[in-house]
Amino acid sequence: MPTAIAVTGRELVLPPPDGQTPSAVVLRPPDAQSLDDALAEVGTLLDQQGYLVVLYPAATPAAVVRRLHIVRSVLESDRMALLPLELPPLAVAVLARQLRQLSVSDFSPGVLACAARLLSHYIHAGALLGSVARLDRVPVSLTSHVKSWVPGAHFGVLAHPTPQLVKVGGAAELPAPGYATSMTVARGQLNSHGYGDGGAGRDDWVTGALAPAWGVRGVEEVPLPAESARWWGTPKLIEFAAAIPDLSVLYQLVASVRREECHWCGFELIGDRCAFCSCPVARGDEIPALLTSQRPALTSR
Predict the structure, then answer these.
(1) Can you point out the beta strands (E) in 45-173?
(2) Per-residue pLDDT tens digits for 199-239
């Protein structure tokens, strides 16, 4: 049976790259939908689609996460996977689109759900910020905090895969992916004045400086997710996420990982635990390292 991909906000549903990629289901928060309606909606969806994989940032408000667990518990469904991700909101949207692309392939629901952890390693997610004073999800030095109060100071921040912060206009640069990517950009409330290097506007640092330095194949602009300002600690931001655009490469990455069978629920899986029941792989020898500390090698761009 097919597998549906769900997210917790409309801004997390990015435009499909082709005519075959299905859309994502948007699960509404408790203040926008009653529990009875949520149960009916998800129950119907499971009947129609068979399986449901829900992606959401780990920083999602507790009430929304509680609702997801209540729905799964009341429905007593083992066909609904809840996957919190340590990624900024825009990166979650990019990952959800990748899973939507793969959902039409021959991967089983268990493998598709587990692929979220694998593919997240290949997303370079960050933002251009007007202040890091309230940024608590990326390590920030005292010096950077002090500089953030200086008028005109702006920072390029990489939150994933390796946190890093640089002052825009300085000598330091954010490390580029070692493989071909395209970039998705979402603009917040930063204006278009110069960012301190005597050249382009602040808006252009991401698309005019960072994107060329990273050698991205293309840039797509989308609306800013509603949770982004809270995640980054400021509405004055431009969020970006660089990810692998080629479906054949994504498929190869997932297909190359050793598959296991969950000894608890029977789902096929890749990595060290089942995405549907969270049960770890039951064997004492080598645990697949591809989703924990290592990543499959990609050809350099």
Answers:
(1) 51-57, 80-85, 124-129, 155-160, 164-167
(2) 444 448 999 999 999 999 999 999 999 999 999 999 999 99
Long-range contacts of range 281-286, CB-CB < 8 Å, 24 or more positions apart?
A: none
**What pLDDT, on the 0 to 100 scale, is given for residue 284?**
55
Q: How far apart are CA 243 and CA 58, in angstroms?
A: 20
**pTM for this model (two decimals):** 0.88
Least confident of 49-58, 161-170, 194-203, 256-265: 194-203
**C-beta separation of 6 from 54 below 8 A:** yes
Are the C-beta atoms of 149 and 132 separated by less than 8 Å? no
Q: How far is CA 119 from CA 40, 50, 52, 283, in A?
A: 31, 23, 18, 24
pLDDT of residue 147: 53
How many angstroms separate the CA atoms of 296 and 176, rounded?
Answer: 17
pLDDT reported for residue 182: 97
Asked if 98 and 120 touch (Cβ cutoff 8 Å), the reply is no
CA distance 293 to 114: 15
Domain boundaries, the chain: 3-108, 124-243
Phi, psi of 117, deg, nearest 5: -65, -40
For 208, which DSSP code?
Answer: I
Beta bridge partners of 166: 156
| Whether residue 53 has pLDDT greater than 80 | yes
Eight-state DSSP code of residue 10: G
289 pLDDT above the threshold of 80: no
- Assigned CATH topology for domain 124-243: Hypothetical Protein Tm841; Chain: A;domain 3 (3.30.1180)
CA-to-CA distance for 141 and 144, rounded, in angstroms? Answer: 5
